[in-house]
Specification:
Shape: globular
Number of domains: 1
Structural class: alpha/beta
Helix content: 40-55%
Strand content: 5-15%
Low-confidence stretches: 5-22
Radius of gyration: 21 Å
CATH superfamily: Alpha/Beta hydrolase fold, catalytic domain
Distance between the termini: 93 Å
Order of helices and strands: HHEEEHEHEHEHHHHHEHEHH
Mean pLDDT: 89
Number of helices: 13
């Protein structure tokens, strides 16, 4: 008995030393948002007060666009993930992108509520604040989930829908980034609120890319620094505590908005089979799969993916023009 107790005590001491050493080597406390703004909120970034938050957004392109494009990023990303798309779209369209509550420079929700319904309410409040009656709503991963839920909840506000490796279906992943796995483990996720090995961020990004060689040091640096924004790591753990699929998934056939679905053929987090399921569920939708890309194809290869977006929008404009000239 004494020997067993001694073994347990020794094991406990070893674990304590390992945890202490890990914490010391990877100490990374939260950073105040003010210290990140100069680098990550350069013009045309602005901040808008909404739902008790100072929301980081960029509103670019044509001011007279009657149906702006609104872009919603995925989990642990930021509005910067859409840089390539905005560069291509803004010369002809108004393009709005935003750091969602819990992410980027916007930071944690004031009330700690990360249910999908609250995000849908956030998007409609954002449209109201920006004077946008109807929009083309696009989202990647978690942002895609918010987008299609918004199309169901407020169909009059969504003229068209673009889903990029969207979440929302109950799913089985082939591989989950280590950062996401840690965020779902009680106690360990609390340790990660004060530590963050840069290697965890790099590994997670490489896991989500179809071609890991596209992950650059600059990309890792951006994700790393914005993850350290005060409150974001705690928010991530709290959001993962919510359901990972939607009770409204059966309502997808009710979506009437023209829908483009883009998917990375090497997405291991939400494999391509789920893109095919969205395509079956949403009437008249179009599915385009990019064989060499992963979970964030818009970021990994913006040129290839946005070309399909431009074609989709041109077709919508043609249809709208024809409809307006009907007797």
């Amino acid at each position: 008995m004494k020997r067993s107790a001694g073994v347990i005590a020794a094991a406990g001491a070893t674990v304590a030393v390992l945890v202490g050493g890990f914490t010391l080597l990877n100490w990374a406390p939260d950073r105040p948002v003010g210290g990140l703004v100069d680098r990550w909120a350069q013009p045309p970034s602005t901040f808008v007060e909404l739902d008790g938050l100072q929301v980081h957004l960029r509103d670019e392109g044509r001011r007279d666009d009657p149906v702006p494009i609104v872009l919603l990023h995925g989990t642990s990303a930021s509005l910067h993930t859409w840089d390539g798309w905005v560069e291509a779209l803004a010369p002809a369209r108004r393009v709005v992108r935003v750091d969602l509550p819990g992410f980027g420079l916007t930071g944690p929700a004031a009330d700690g509520d990360y249910r999908i319904e609250r995000y849908v309410g956030f998007v409609t409040a954002l449209l109201d604040a920006l004077g946008i009656e109807r929009c083309v709503l696009a989202g990647n991963s978690f942002g895609g989930w918010i987008a299609w839920e918004t199309a169901l909840a407020a169909p009059g506000r969504v003229a068209a829908l673009i889903l990029v490796d969207s979440a929302g279906h109950p799913r089985e992943s082939e591989s989950v980034p280590i950062g996401f796995r840690i965020a779902r483990i009680p106690l360990l996720n609390r340790l990660m609120e004060v530590t963050l090995p840069r290697g965890v961020v790099e590994s997670s990004l490489r896991n989500t890319y179809g071609d890991p060689s596209r992950v650059t040091p600059g990309l890792v640096e951006r994700y790393y620094e914005l993850t350290l924004r005060e409150g974001n790591r705690a928010a991530l753990a709290n959001r993962f505590a919510d359901a990972r699929s939607s009770p409204r998934i059966a309502q997808l056939p009710e979506i009437a908005a023209p829908t483009l679905i883009l998917w990375g053929g090497r997405d291991r987090l939400i494999p391509p089979a789920y893109g095919e399921q969205f395509h079956r569920d949403i009437p008249g939708s179009r599915l385009v799969v990019f064989p060499g890309l992963g979970h964030v194809p818009h970021e990994e290869n913006p040129e290839a993916t946005v070309a399909n977006v431009r074609s989709f929008l041109d077709e919508l404009d043609t249809l709208d023009s024809a409809a307006s000239h009907e007797p």
